[in-house]
Automatic annotation (TrEMBL):
Record family assignment: Belongs to the peptidase S8 family.
Keywords: Hydrolase, Protease, Serine protease
Domain Peptidase S8/S53 span(s) in chain numbering: 173-442
TM stretches of this protein: none
GO biological process, one term: proteolysis
PANTHER family: EGF-LIKE DOMAIN-CONTAINING PROTEIN, PEPTIDASE S8
Signal peptide, first to last residue: none
Annotated source species: Phocaeicola plebeius
Molecular function terms from GO: serine-type endopeptidase activity
Keyword Protease on entry: yes
This protein's name: Serine protease
Active site: D182 (charge relay system), H218 (charge relay system), S396 (charge relay system)
This protein's record includes keyword Hydrolase: yes
Pfam name, any one: Peptidase_S8
Amino acid sequence: MWMKVNRIGLALLFLLCGSSVSAESLYKYRVQLTDKSKSVHSLEHPETFLSERALARRASQGVAVDSTDLPVCRAYIERLESQGGKYISSSKWNNTVLMQVPDEAIALRFLDNSFVRSIKKVWVSPDSIMPRNKDRKEQVKNQWKKQDDYYGMGAEQIKIHHGDSLHLAGFKGKGIQIAVIDAGFYNVDAMKIFKNTTILGTHDFVNPSSDIYGEHNHGMKVLSCMAVNTPHVMVGTAPEASYWLLRSEDNDTEQPVEEDNWAAAVEFADSVGVDIVNTSLGYYSFDDPIDNYTYRQLDGHTSLMAASASYAAKKGLLVVCSAGNSGMDEWKKITPPADAEDILTIGAIDNMGVNAAFSSIGNTADGRIKPDVMAMGVHSAVVGVDGGTAFANGTSFASPIFCGLVACLWQACPWLTVRQLIQVVHEASDRNAYPDNIYGYGVTDMWKAYQLAMKLKADTDGK
């Protein structure tokens, strides 16, 4: 599951048409494997499973390719297929495969294999699924009003961090690749406001045959905070970055399989050489309460998503994640993967720097400060479903707003490792001397972060 639409305070704005459609009973199981001893790949030839850009990113940060980078053994997948399973996806970092079966008895046969450590049911097909609107593009009007400010509607959420100073210095994200892992990018392909946005590719890990632009609008709104580049209407925080649009969230149900989808998506992002991942998703409760997480499991490794996000950091990939919108709920805490190690977890403030009551709080179960920093998540400027500008609330938007600014900082200071990048962000924030579980390190001055990064380089070069 994620921060579902009812949690992020957004309505389901794409239209549904017709009556529900019956679905056959199907099940998906996460199969935990024991090893990779039969892998046909070798660490001596990582170019067979990682792109040149992915290898260059690792090399620049001194990250070695190791056994966790090796793909899951194909021989093991073929054995599970011969037993009646259908391969859906895998996670090489966690050494798991996602298999679909028509009968739960088939999944139990998987345990007869010596290479299978455990199985976990992560998805049961819903009783019905709702068809998507086929005339979606008719909603797009592509109308807006121009503003005096160059940033248009996006001015406040950029200037509160002095992000405009980075932009004026020529750092707008050029050369940085950002993957947005979300629930769908409704009508992005039909909106003129995105005409200057560089989209490198798309992939749907929920349903590979779907139209990713015909799914949920949440990802479109998230993307807009960073990627829009229409002066005097709306300019995002990283208008010159390049984007991959990846779907992992299935809005029809709330089941653990979405963590498997996310794990596959973040590994895809790593393999193609993405620099930063933004994910405005989070999971702590599911359709079946037996799958729910507890506070003590917020350790950065228990949930599959947090484990994958922590792995991503080890691969030199920066993950920027929304803290969650449970601050006023019984749960209150951050939602996995926001508890992952060496990622940036973003809480929400208003334009006066006051925390939003809905913004989830930390810390992690093992005592790490969360959220890391805060960004505007109250009355955030986004693109609306009609292709014009709108406003929305949620840490879902605080995260991409800050993600884009970090992309600009990394463009300016490409020598920084993931940990160094996070370090300068913390140090440049207004509560760095007294971080807490509500604001984290506070509101970041991105120009100060740039200056700290330059000083760090000078000090390092001088040694």
